[in-house]
Amino acid sequence: MLDIIERKFEPFVAPRSREITDGTAAVLLPLVDYPSEPHIVLTQRAGHLNSHPGQVSFPGGKFEPGDDNLLITALRETEEEIGVPSSEIRIVTELPFQRTRFNVNVAAFLGVLEPGQNYRVDSTELDAVFEVPLGFFLDPTNIRYQTFEGPGYKLNRACYPYNDFIIWGFTLGVLIDLLNDTLNADIDLQYRASD
Questions:
Q1: Residue 67: alpha-carbon gap to chain centroid
Q2: Residue 73: C-alpha distances to residues 7, 25, 66, 117 (Å)
């Protein structure tokens, strides 16, 4: 499955030149290359955070002035949040720029990790790091719909409950876009990543 995904992209050379504005962010979509099936690494944001507390996300965060580009942002944040250094990540591609429901531009990078990573959770930012087999998202019987509420929103959206985690929103949209584009998964969540 990972071979099929990687064949869809040209060899990665350098991140795209992007206009970076205040609040621009970058995330990493880390795939663990297990022989049986790749897994996606996801995080659960800490419950005490002001922004998106307890939500499932990719490792990543906002661009900082010391970052040379958005790939550096994604790699720096990944190491800070889950303890995986950039030397352990093989970048496959940069995905199309996405915009969140809160109007934040996000660059997403697809990366590959070898199995056996020793994740170290930064408890100031995260409550958990976990892996999900990609096949879990390819099974339409795993899709549920539920109402999500927060400051200024109440949304009925598609989600994937996985163990104690609920994967939805921007994170799910980006992941499903990737699976649809690379594996012809034809998953219709009735909304795009910008919802």
A1: 20
A2: 25, 8, 9, 20
Give dist(CA 35, CA 56) in Å, integer.
25
Domain 2-13+23-134 indexed as CATH 3.90.79.10: yes
CA distance 114 to 3: 14
Q: Domain residues of the chain, as ranges? A: 2-13+23-134
Structure confidence by residue, pLDDT tens digits, 144-161: 999 988 777 788 899 999
pLDDT digits (tens, 9 = 90+) for 21-30: 878 999 999 9
Provide the 3-class DSSP secondary structure of residue 81: helix
Token pair of 106 as six digits: 């996000």
Strand partners, 56: 44
d(CA 18, CA 61): 16
- Sequence-ordered strand ranges (E) for 46-104: 56-57, 60-62, 89-94, 98-99
